[in-house]
Amino acid sequence: MIPKQAKQSVGQRFLARFRDAGAEEIAPDILLPAGDLLDLYGEDIRARAYVTQDPIRGEMMLRPDFTVPVVRAHMQNGADPARYCYLGEVFRKQDMGDTRPAAPRDNEYLQCGFELFTRDPQADAEVFALFHDALAPLSLTAQIGDMGLLLDAVRGLPLTQARAVALMHHIWRPGRFARLLARFSTPAVARDFPEPAAAWAGMRTEDEMIRRIARLQSDAAVPPLSRVWTERLDRLFTLRAPAPDALAALTDLARDMPAIAPAVTRIRARLDAIAARGIDLSAVIFDASHGRTTLEYYDGFTFSFVAGRAGWPPVASGGRYDALTRVLGRGREIPAVGGIIRPGLVAELETQA
């Protein structure tokens, strides 16, 4: 058991490093309006966050992470560009069915983070290098990905807009995504909706039900997605290799999936920028599905540093979340990328070294 003071000491060390990188230290509220978080993540966040009711402020949520309150504060009165850092507790419910003894799954734990709001195209490489250098003594495995690559691939499928939107909505839920893709790849069975003898009843109005039936009948007439496209998508989603090898594979795949070509060009430029900062790309793993099981605001570059211990979450993680700034900025957007380190896990690794 690592004492809380030791975790704080490690956190302060990283916080100082982020301040040296030009970041302003901020301290977002611990108790946040639940409405904004529910709008962003959907009702699924209730299973992971602590929600309470305030008689004046309404439904509130203990801070599940720092990025959302930092973005909200920045979009209200922040400068462009801007750098922020922070250190504090976050609160997450854990899966009681997880019996792995090695998993350090605290309900309350420290996060130390760095967020960069800038239009500089080198920002991804700068943030990744900052975390890479700070964590270098721990010999962690660096992993990267790009959610924009996957979103572009889905947009490029020969699907109706409704089906493409449904797949993109579930891209962060691999199980649901796979089931939906399988359904769209199978010939639909036409459903008969006979005129009911009884009066309409239930929460939906008769007009709503008629429109829904029309949508189901229209979708049933859509031809299935060709197997060649599901195979290409599988090749992309399962791609995991050292970054130079992955880039070569992506370049080949882009010939069959032209929609991902711009994303591949961005990834190549990003890898060049990372290499220019003295980082060995052959030691960086590119995982095309990296970021699919994290919070849903990442829409571009993603990264993590893992210790390779069974049941452990990443020691550090982060990514790009441009769309989140647009949502919280009420239409005003500024490119942003950042990440967090878990000082408790770092303290444990250093104690056992």
Describe the structure using short key phrases.
353 residues, alpha+beta, nine-stranded mixed β-sheet, 13 helices, globular, glycosyltransferase activity, HisRS/HisZ, HisRS-like_core, ATP phosphoribosyltransferase regulatory subunit, glycosyltransferase
Uncertain segments: 96-104
Work out the helix count: 13
Radius of gyration: 22 Å
Order of helix and strand elements from N to C terminus:
HEEHEEHEEHEHHHHHEHHEEEHEH
Protein name: ATP phosphoribosyltransferase regulatory subunit
GO biological process, one term: histidyl-tRNA aminoacylation
Keywords: Glycosyltransferase, Transferase
Binding site for L-histidine: 65-67, 92, 111, 115, 292, 297-298
Give an overview of the whole structure.
The chain is an alpha+beta fold. It has a domain at 158-230. It contains 13 helices and 12 strands. The chain has helices spanning 4-20, 34-41, 67-77, 123-135, 147-155, 161-169, 174-184, 206-220, 227-237, 243-256, 261-275, 322-328, 343-352; strands at 24-25, 31-33, 51-54, 58-62, 82-91, 108-117, 141-146, 240-242, 284-287, 301-306, 316-320, 336-341. The chain has a 9-stranded mixed β-sheet, sandwiched between helices. The chain has a 3-stranded antiparallel β-sheet with strand order 2-4-3. Strand 3 and strand 4 form a beta hairpin. The longest helix is centred in the N-terminal third of the chain and has 17 residues, at 4-20. The radius of gyration is 22 Å and the shape is globular. Residues 96-104 have low confidence and may be disordered. InterPro entries: aa-tRNA-synth_II/BPL/LPL, HisRS-like_core, HisRS/HisZ. One of its GO terms (cellular component) is cytoplasm. GO terms for molecular function: glycosyltransferase activity; histidine-tRNA ligase activity. Keywords: Glycosyltransferase, Transferase. One of its GO terms (biological process) is histidyl-tRNA aminoacylation.
